[in-house]
Specification:
By secondary structure, the protein is an alpha/beta fold. It has two domains: about 5-120, Rossmann fold; about 130-285 and about 315-335, Dihydrodipicolinate Reductase, domain 2, CATH 3.30.360. The chain is built from twelve helices and 15 strands. Helix 5 (about 105-115) runs antiparallel to helix 12 and helix 9 packs across helix 12. The two termini are about 35 Å apart.
């Protein structure tokens, strides 16, 4: 019988709590502890009810435990690089939520430590593990639509998050559209070399007070000559809207929304169908499990993860170029850094 991977959860906020709940049901892992310096009494009670055996506010308790094999990092972005480095130095494998960091030099330090210590680092771009997105990527890679000429990605959340989140997120291009920057690279198999970005806060004017936008738009130029057109919005009144289209020299492939069911009613009042999932936890429920299964497989087989630190770095570099473009109003070059 295979030995379960002993993991520590670093950060048990919204995403960390979701990962914890998932991992507690998975045979591949054994959760040893949860760490979060901002734990409240209410969170502690919830974690105990979920079945978390132990929790702490002190990261030293995690990194001084020689029985821990790996960590799941879901803490605030500014802590990611430091936690990756500390874990690597202790020979712990790492799963880290996106983005790796807001600071590129710190990302490079973290990736250097991972390489030096020979540990596994997988970045949490869970969209790659979605059944539908994966099928689309394989069709493109097999050449079934020919050379991709135009890629269109639409991603919309049902409602804006809190203003506290907006203030701390790093901006819509780094926090939100970064999933689509990674998806664009994943689908086309090409690097982004230039980006033009703009946006508006019509959906919630208060967002602009924090120097951000509620809806972001980006045009990408790929090294292979293709063009990407990306749109994200903090508000979609009908639920979590996720659609992709790739036009190629031989045809077009579309990845539509997932619906609650496939039943459609046609009558004298029109066309009626089921709703889309309300938000990303529902839309990508299985993808969150599948990315963790892939992480476990990488640890067991000591193989390169399906989403690497290089992927995480490149997505941040595209996001930074988009943020610069939004401020400058000009096309901005995207740096490509090998690690």
């Amino acid at each position: 019988m295979k030995k379960s991977i002993r993991v520590a959860m670093l950060g048990v906020g919204r995403i960390g709590k979701m990962h914890t709940r998932n991992i507690l049901t998975m045979k591949e892992f054994e959760v040893v502890t949860g760490m979060d310096p901002y734990l409240t009494a209410e969170q502690e009670a919830e974690l105990l009810e979920m079945g978390l055996p132990k929790f702490t506010r002190d990261p030293d308790e995690v990194f001084n435990d020689p029985t821990i094999d790996a960590v799941i990092i879901s803490s605030v972005t500014e802590t990611h690089s430091d936690l990756i480095i500390r874990a690597a130095r202790k020979k712990m494998d790492v799963f880290c939520e996106k983005p790796i960091d807001h600071d590129v030099p710190r990302i490079r330090e973290a990736l250097k430590a991972v390489k030096e210590e020979g540990v596994i680092l997988q970045i949490g771009f869970n969209h790659r593990f979605d059944l539908h997105h994966g099928s689309m990527q394989r069709m493109i890679a097999e050449g079934r639509v020919g050379d991709v000429e135009v890629l269109k990605i639409t991603s919309r959340d049902p409602a804006p998050p809190s203003m506290k989140y907006i203030q701390e997120s790093g901006g819509i291009f780094v926090d939100f559209m970064i999933h689509d920057f990674d998806m664009a690279r994943f689908l086309t198999g090409s690097e982004v070399v230039e980006v033009f970005a703009t946006g508006t806060s019509v959906c919630d004017p208060q967002i602009s007070e924090y120097g951000d936008v509620g809806s972001g738009h980006a045009v990408l130029k790929f090294a292979n000559g293709a063009i990407g057109i990306l749109e994200v919005s903090r508000r979609s009144s009908f639920g979590h809207d996720q659609r992709i289209e790739a036009l190629g020299s031989k045809g077009c492939v579309m990845d539509d929304n997932v619906y609650e069911n496939n039943v459609r009613l046609f009558n004298e009042t029109g066309y009626h169908g089921a709703k889309v999932p309300y938000h990303f936890p529902e839309r990508y429920k299985e993808a969150y499990f599948d990315e963790l299964r892939a992480f476990a497989a990488s640890i067991e087989n000591r193989t390169q993860p399906l989403v690497t630190g290089f992927d995480g770095l490149q997505a941040v570099l595209i996001a930074e170029a988009a943020a610069r473009s939004f401020k400058s109003g000009k096309l901005e070059k995207v740096e490509i850094i090998d690690v």
